[in-house]
Every structure is written in structure tokens, then in C-alpha cells.
Amino acid sequence: MPVLRRSCLAAAALAAIFMLFSCSQTSQRTAANEATAKAAEPSSPSGPITAKTAYWEMYKSAYKWAPDIVLLRLEPKDIPGLAAGGGKAAVWQATFASPTQHAFRVFTDAVAAQPPDIYKGVTIGNSVTWAGVTREVMPIAMADVNADSDAAYSTAATDGEAWLKKNPEKKLSHFQLGNGYSFSAPVWYVMWGEKKAGYAAYVNATTGKIVKK
């Protein structure tokens, strides 16, 4: 075989090897970059979460709707098949209002989907006309909310421990964060059973202590 031909074949072989090596290195770098990016992504919660965790997810969407939003209510939704308990829930709803738009919207954050009504992540309700702040429904400043939903639940359950032991069949019927003129700070309203035959507690969201109304 002529020397020139052998040299050409050798050069071609080296070029092929170099290309394979280069592709292999690029593939490895791409895989490593994808793995790093995936690891850096915030992981979605797989179980029930507290109110404040859900709130911030809904707040980001609400702020895009109206930068002057105020929070009026924050509460969990009891959805069959989606875990909840101890002040945590798989689905939370926040009612945000815009003074300039004279409207409010209900935002929902769910950690899992339950077709056909519940979608994973944040969903936004329709805009509804809002007459403004009243003495019974006042804005909630989240900076004043030190006691998260799990802590508020624990405080209320401890306060009503004797009643709950006597009435184990009574289930949690109301649980929400609100604010009104009767209170010095936002409060968690927690109730088991019904108003006529149940136990209810107000927990100061700032101090985390029971409020005697």
C-alpha cells in the first residue's frame, strides 16, 4: 500500500476518533449540566403544606394581577383524596382584593391535581366586584402573621383538648385566617363541629395565643 494512502487512512482514523471523543465529552457535559439544573430547581411539595407556604405561591400570581393587592382571607379546602390535618392541607385558597380595581379574586394553590376541578399549582378565579373594606373583613398583613397554620391548629387543639376527647366524632369544620375590628391582630378561627354543638377558638396570629372574645 502506498505510503501516501496509509497516511491518509491514518489521518481519517484519527479524525474519526477525535470526533467520537469530542461528541462523548459534549454529551457528558450536557448531561452534567442538565443534572445540575434539575438539582437546582425547587422541588414541589408532595404532601400537605402550611398556610404561609401556600400563601407565597398565590401572592406571586396575585401581585401580577394587581400590585396593590390586600389579603382578606386564607383557608384550606377539604378535598376527598387529598391529605390534610394538623393545620396543613393539600389545597389552600386565598382571597385577594385590589382597592384600585374595586375587585377581588380567589386564588387556589394545590400540591396535587384531582380532576376535573383541582389543578396542581396556582389557579386564579374570576374577578368579582368588591365594595371595599368593612369592619368585619379587614386586610391581613402577613408581616403580622407569626403563627403559621400548624401552630395555630396545635394551640386550638390544646385549648379544647377536654372537649375534643369527649366528642371524638366531631370533625374540623372551619379553619381560616381573617381580620376584623374586634381583634388587635389577624386571627385564626378554628372550629370543630357546629356552632350550636361544637368547640371554637380564636388564635392570635401574631402571638400564637388563644384570644378570649
Structure description:
- The protein is of the alpha+beta class and 213 residues long.
- The chain folds into two domains: 1-41; 51-211, no CATH class.
- The protein is 33% helix and 26% strand.
- The chain has helices spanning 3-40, 51-65, 149-159, 161-166, and strands spanning 70-76, 84-85, 88-89, 91-98, 103-110, 121-124, 128-129, 172-178, 187-193, 198-204, 210-211.
- The longest helix has 38 residues, at 3-40.
- It is globular.
- It starts with a helix and ends with a strand.
- The relative contact order is 0.11.
- Mean pLDDT is 84; it is low at 1-42.
Summarize, please.
The chain is α+β, with helices and mostly antiparallel strands and 213 residues long. It has 2 domains: 1-41; 51-211, no CATH class. The protein has helices at 3-40, 51-65, 149-159, 161-166; strands spanning 70-76, 84-85, 88-89, 91-98, 103-110, 121-124, 128-129, 172-178, 187-193, 198-204, 210-211.
Order of helices and strands: HHEEEEEEEHHEEEE
Q: What's the rounded overall pLDDT mean?
A: 84
Q: Helical content, roughly?
A: 25-40%
Number of strands: 11
User: Which class do the helix and strand fractions yield?
Assistant: alpha+beta
Distance between the termini: 103 Å
Q: What is the radius of gyration computed over CA atoms, rounded to a whole number of angstroms?
A: 28 Å
The number of helical elements comes to: 4
Q: Which regions contain 5 or more consecutive residues with pLDDT less than 50?
A: 1-42
